[in-house]
Design brief:
Layout (H helix, E strand, L loop, with lengths): L1 E7 L2 E8 L6 E7 L5 E9 L4 E2 L8 E5 L3 H7 L8 E5 L4 E2 L5 E3 L6 E3 L1 E7 L15 E8 L2 E2 L9 H5 L4 E8 L9 E6 L2 E7 L7 H8 L10 E3 L7 E3 L4 E6 L3 E9 L13
C-alpha cells in the first residue's frame, strides 16, 4: 500500500494510491474500528492532486555517520552506537516543493536517506519487535547548512524551513532492506548511490536505541543516515532522492527571500 497526503483545490487529505491502466487513482484513506487503514471513495487521478509530505511528524530523529562508505570517506572513527540528532517539524516539505537556500549559507548540502514512518506508539521497543511499530518507509533529504555546523549544535544547520523534504508517499511493503538502493541525483547526475546493507546500524537497532529515551508516536519519522557522496547544491539545481521499491522525491533549490515562507506553513 502506498499512502499519500494530498491537496486538491485547497482541501488536504490522506489517501492510498490504486494502480489503474488509465492512470493511477487516489482513494480516500480512513480507519476501521480496529484502527486499520481502509481505502474509500476515489478522490481523483494521482496527476490531478498535489502531493504533500506523506506524514506530519511531531518528532524527527536522525542518525549520523551510519553508512560504512561515509565513515570511510570522511575518515571518522567507527561508531559504537547510533549518533542521534533532531530536525524540527517546521523543516518538512513534500515532493516538488522548493528547498529554500538562505542567502547567508555558503554551502548547502543534500543528504539522501531512507526514512522510517512510525505507525504505532513506540517506547522502549525490542529490536525483534521494532517493525511492529512501523507504518512504512519513504524517501528523505536531510538538507544541511554545512557552515552553520560551526554553531556548536545543529539546530540551525539542520532545522531551517524546508530542510526536510519527505515523500512521495509511504510504502508499507518495501522490498527487503538488503536490496534497497538509495540514489541521489543532482540534475541527471548520480551523486550518491548505495545499498541499505551499508548501514552500520539497521532499522531495528536504531528504533530500539531511540525509543529507550524518546517516545515515538504515529506519524513521527526516523532518518537512518546518508551514504558517501554528500555534496553541495545551489539555487537553480534540482535534487532527487530515489529508493528502489519506494519512490522518487524531487525538489528544486531556490534562493530564499524573507517573505517566501512562514515557519510551519504550507508543508508541500
Amino acid at each position: 500500500m502506498r499512502i499519500v497526503r494530498y491537496d486538491i483545490e485547497g482541501r488536504e487529505g490522506r489517501g492510498v494510491i490504486e494502480p489503474s491502466p488509465t492512470g493511477d487513482l487516489v482513494r480516500a484513506l480512513g480507519s476501521d474500528e480496529k484502527g486499520d487503514n481502509t481505502a474509500g471513495a476515489v478522490i481523483a487521478r494521482l496527476d490531478e492532486v498535489t502531493l504533500l509530505a506523506p506524514c506530519d511528524p511531531r518528532t524527527i530523529v536522525c542518525v549520523g555517520s551510519n553508512y560504512a562508505s561515509q565513515v570511510e570517506e570522511k575518515g571518522r572513527p567507527w561508531p559504537d552506537r547510533p549518533a542521534l540528532f533532531l530536525k524540527s517539524p517546521n523543516s518538512v516539505i513534500g515532493p516538488e516543493a522548493a528547498i529554500q537556500a538562505p542567502p547567508e549559507v555558503e554551502r548547502l548540502e543534500y543528504e539522501g536517506e531512507l526514512a522510517v514512518v512510525i505507525g504505532k506508539l513506540a517506547r522502549a521497543v525490542r529490536p525483534e519487535n521494532a517493525m511492529d511499530h512501523v507504518l512504512g518507509f519513504t524517501c528523505a533529504n536531510d538538507v544541511t547548512a554545512h557552515d552553520w555546523r560551526a554553531d556548536g549544535q545543529w539546530a540551525r544547520a539542520k532545522s531551517a524551513d524546508t530542510f526536510c523534504p519527505l515523500g512521495p508517499w509511504i510504502e508499507t511493503e518495501p522490498p527487503d532492506s538488503g536490496s534497497l538502493t538509495i540514489t541521489t541525483r543532482l540534475g541527471d547526475r548520480a551523486v550518491q548511490q548505495s545499498g541499505a546493507e551499508q548501514m552500520i546500524f539497521g532499522v531495528n537497532t536504531i528504533l530500539a536505541y531511540v525509543t529507550r529515551w524518546i517516545t515515538l508516536r504515529p506519524g513521527d519519522v526516523v532518518l537512518t543516515g546518508s551514504p558517501a557522496g554528500v555534496g553541495p547544491m545551489v539555487p537553480g539545481d534540482r535534487v532527487t532522492v530515489e529508493i528502489d521499491g519506494i519512490g522518487s522525491l524531487p525538489n528544486p533549490v531556490a534562493l530564499r527571500r524573507a517573505h517566501d515562507r512562514t515557519p510551519g506553513a504550507g508543508r508541500r
